[in-house]
Each structure stands twice: as structure tokens, then as C-alpha cells.
Amino acid sequence: MSRRYPIGAELAKHGVNFRVWAPSHARVEVVLDTNDSYPLQSEPDGYFSATAPAATGSKYKFRLASGLFPDPASRFQPEGPFGWSQVIDPFFHWTDDNWPGCKLAGQIIYEMHIGTFTKEGTWKAASAQLPELAAAGITVLEIMPVADFAGSFGWGYDGVDFFAPCRLYGTPDDFRSFVNAAHSLRVGVILDVVYNHAGPSGNFLGAFSPSYFTKRYTTDWGDAINFDGEDSPPVREFAISNASYWIDEFHLDGLRLDATQNIYDAGPIHIVQEIGRAVRKSARGRDTIVVAENEPQDTRFIRTYKLDGMWNDDFHHSALVALSGRNEAYYSDYSGRAQELLSAFKYGFLYQGQRYAWQKKLRGTPSLDLDPSVLVVFLQNHDQITNSTRGDRMDRLASPARFRAMTTLLLLAPGTPLLFQGQEFAASAPFTFFSDFDPKLSKLVSSGRAEFMSQFRSFGSAEVPVTLPDPGDPKTFMRCKLDFSDRERHAETYTLHKDLLQLRKADPAFRVMKVDGAVLGEHTLLVRYFAPDGRDRILLLNLDMDLRFKSVPEPLLAPPPGCRWQVLFSSEHPRYGGSGVYPLDGDGDWNLPAESATVLSPIEN
């Protein structure tokens, strides 16, 4: 029969066709929860298949010589990874036929963890918030991984059922309804996927074939996936099909690839490149986004593997040091000074092949010639918030004024800005690591987190020890849930974000993003945005004390002919919680308030 995907359960004319790759087995049966069982027929290259009298909603497992196991390509696990797989009908009444998809340039990305985004932690509850997100200026949602995982809560990066949307958040159709609703509001949805390892609990891929994984490479989280060793073609097919599946059956607009430095492939065509091709093909003409997280900042993922973008950790690291004043552990090679921020703003990666003392090796590859929009910039994300002792958000680690100023720099950057859920209204909820494993594994997870955090001097000492939140405690998970009443309590911060996003969208100078910049002081910089109509804009960022210049010998600060500058936006406006807007000049002097960002526009003399 004709199948949509190489393996899994698919509806057929007379029942359900089951197909699985199990090359290390001589016999495979499908067993229904009615206790009926049917042998699968052996095919070349280790595949087995058969059509059995089942239907939508039927629950099943595969019987191997070693026991009963869920389907490696299960489309849904209603009782979790250890339970029965369920046959799913992919038909859904989509209403997004006119949705064109989305490209990376011009987007505002919003990272979301479905389990903590709302109190309910479901697709349905998250859908109710979509109009508010769209009205605020969010254009693309980046959903943290939803491949089903063991336990009743988790980040999702320990997923084990790659094709099964996590049952904790709702049904597969609930996920589809969420995407459909987002598209109706002109908001795209991309999914964070993990192709570098699988979770430690409920992972039964190895029962079907040990070739799913390899010992030839290492990751920090478990065995690497085998993309280039013996019996790797079906494993490659598994990952490529999975990428296609999310785009095809859920109408997603792309993927964010987790930790690509641990996706190993020495073959002629890297698996990441094939995944990108599969995404574009499955979109059937819609625009898509495929973004890589890559700690070494290897631009081959854009240049050679043809992805659309990469995360820019350098921008975050420099900004955090500028905001907090602390440069310990992996922040130790950053100063947060104006020159560093301006270079990250204009050129993308700060480390493009220079020595990185913290790692005692060279870091990064050239990004000077790349379009700035291909690099995703952020002040917060799930990892970086968590890498503090209490999971405090950035607005808790910096002064309010400094946070407002840096938010302005972020949201008016040539790179593609990303906000972490709740950042736009200074959410009071922390974000810490949480995972619901058995006690033995939970202890290992807690020890691992403590070992990782020990690189930070502020983590504590024998005299002043620091205790991290227990990842396995349900209270840790519950504390991370957003409280949307913060939108009202922190209305100034929310207004700041909405105004900046509207300015970025509406002003031609910020849409074009042709920029140059200069340093005015150790912690003071200016950026000029060259507008198509010649009515340029200026951004002045001052993270120093109040400054007054009697003259500024910097040509980028010169107004257009016949014009003078006026204040278009100030992060110190009282509507944002600021202390007030300084007059731009007084007695011929330039005045820059402390810890502020000011946007200037020209006005005729």
C-alpha cells in the first residue's frame, strides 16, 4: 500500500497498516489492547509490516522476542511512553489555506513552554492567549519540545516518542487547533526538536535496533543518534520523516534544531541539511524557518547546510554582563562594554575564530557577510534563565532602567529578536529546570545540575552553600507557571515591549535595518538607522551615569540637512516606569540620562 511515512500505524482501506524497523529481530507481531495479535511480514532491510483489522483510536504495541513495546513511531501515547500506542487519523479541518508561512527576516519570535505558559498547561489554554500575543506584536511562536516524555512534567528535551505530541498538553488535534488558531491571527508556529539524543526513561528505540544510537560520539545527555554508522540509513530516514511529519500533519512553519553541535554526521550530505530540505518540501510552497542552536557558532549550518538562521549566544552573554555586571564562568570572556555590544549588534557573533579563554580554544566562524536577520538575538531563553541559582529572570538581575534600555537595544536590533514567555510583562514566575523521573534518576539529574552550576563562583561555597530548586519536586514545576495578572501589575514593562514592537513594525528605518554605529564612551553607543526616504533614526544607548557632551565630533550623529533631532522614544518615559525624559539639549549641550535608550527622529528646523 501507499504510505505517508516509512514506519508507524496508518489508516488503510481495510484496517490499519503497521510498519516498523526491527533489523535485529526475526519475528514481530502487532498486539491490540483487545488481546488480538497479528504477525508482521518481513521485508528487505529489516522492516516488518502488515495490515490488521484496527481503526482510529485502536491501541496497540509490538511484540518482540524480549517483550511488548510501544511503536517507535507512535503518533500518540495516551498513557505516556510506557503505555499503549494509539492509531491516529491525521485528517483535520484546517482553515489556513491562505496562510503563506513565514520567513525569518522581519519576525519577532516568542519561546513558549506549553506546560508552564498557562496554569492549565494545555494547548487549549494556550490558544486562548493567542489574540493577546498577536496584538502585542509577536509574529512567530517557538514551542519547546513536545515529543512525549516520561513523567508528569518536564522541559521536553528528554523526549522518547518522536512522533507523539505529549499527552500532558492535550490530543494531537488540540495541537493542530492551536496552530490553526495562530495562523488565523497571522502568527507562525515553529517547533523545537531534538535530534541529538533521546531521553533516558521510556526510550525503547534500542529494543527494536541498537543501531538507533552510537557510542562513537558523545553528548552531555546520553548516547548520540547514529546518522553515519552501520545501519544508519533507516535512522536517517526516521529523523527526516519526523521533520516532514511535523510540517505536513501539523502545518508547522518550521523547526528549531536543538544542540546541533551534537548531531554528528561524517557522511557526504549532513543530516541537518536533509532535514532542512524535508521541511521545505513538506511545506508545499509555504515559507518555512529552520533555525539551529549551535554552541560553537559554526556558520556552516547557514552557508553549507542551508538553514535559515542560528541562535546568537554572544549577544546574550555580552548583554547579561552589561546588565548584571557579573562575568563568571562562560561569561568570563565578555565585558558588556559599548564596543562589544555594538559589534554584536552590527556583526552578529563576537567570536568568529578568535581564542575563547574559557574553553581554551578558538571559538566561532565568520558571520560578517551574513544578513543580520539570520542570527536570533535574545536577553532570555529557557537555558539562560535557568542557569542562575533561582531561575531569576533578567529584570530581577538588573536595575529596572538598565533592563528597559537593553530591551530597547534588543527589540530594535538588526538580528531577529526572541522573547521568552512572560518576558514582555516582566513575569514574576522564575524558570528553573524540572523533570519528573523515578527517584534514582531524579537524584542523578539533581547532581548533574549542581555539577554544572558549580562553574559559577556565585553558586556558593562550603561557608555559604546554595541549594538549587529540586527538579523533581512538583512545586518547582508549578512555580514556573505564568500568572497573566502580571500584565496589569507590570503594565509599564508590557507597554514598553508593545510600543517598541510597534515602532519596529511601523517605522521604515527599522524595517530596512541598514545600520552603522559608533562608541561615545565605555558604556555609551549610538546606532544610526538609514531610512529609504533619508529621514534616518538614531538610537543612543547609555548604560553609564548621566552624561553631558558640549560637542560630539561623530558624523553619524549629524542630522539630515535642514533638520534637527527630536526625541521619538525614550526608555525613561514615565509610561514605562522611567524617571522622565531629559531635554535632548540644553544650552547647546547633549544630555544623555543614565541607564537609558533614546530614539531620535529628524524634524525640520
Describe the structure.
26% of the residues lie in helices and 22% in strands. With 605 residues, the protein is of the alpha/beta class. The protein folds into three domains: 8-86, Immunoglobulin-like (Sandwich), CATH 2.60.40; 109-316 and 374-501, Glycosidases (TIM Barrel); 513-604, Golgi alpha-mannosidase II (Immunoglobulin-like). Strands 10-11-14-17-18-19-22-23 form an eight-stranded parallel barrel, surrounded by four helices. Strands 3, 4, 7, 8 and 9 form a five-stranded antiparallel β-sheet that branches. Helix 6 (232-250) runs parallel beside helix 7 and helix 9 (313-324) packs antiparallel against helix 10 (338-347). 49% of the residues are buried.
Concise overview:
This protein has 18 helices and 31 strands. The chain is of the alpha/beta class and 605 residues long. Helix 13 runs parallel beside helix 17.
Give the helix/strand layout.
Layout: E1 8-12, E2 15-21, E3 29-32, E4 37-39, E5 41-42, E6 47-52, E7 59-64, E8 67-69, E9 85-86, E10 109-112, H1 114-117, H2 123-127, H3 130-136, E11 140-143, E12 147-148, E13 161-165, H4 172-184, E14 188-193, H5 205-208, E15 213-214, E16 224-225, H6 232-250, E17 254-257, H7 271-282, E18 289-292, H8 300-303, E19 309-311, H9 313-324, H10 338-347, E20 354-356, E21 361-363, E22 375-378, H11 382-386, H12 394-397, H13 400-411, E23 416-420, H14 439-453, H15 474-479, H16 486-489, H17 491-506, H18 508-512, E24 515-521, E25 524-529, E26 537-542, E27 547-549, E28 563-570, E29 585-586, E30 589-592, E31 596-604
Parallel strand pairs: 10-11, 10-23, 11-14, 14-17, 17-18, 18-19, 19-22, 22-23
Antiparallel strand pairs: 1-2, 2-6, 3-4, 3-7, 5-6, 7-8, 7-9, 12-13, 15-16, 20-21, 24-25, 25-26, 26-31, 27-30, 28-31, 29-30
Helix pairs in contact: 6-7, 9-10, 13-17
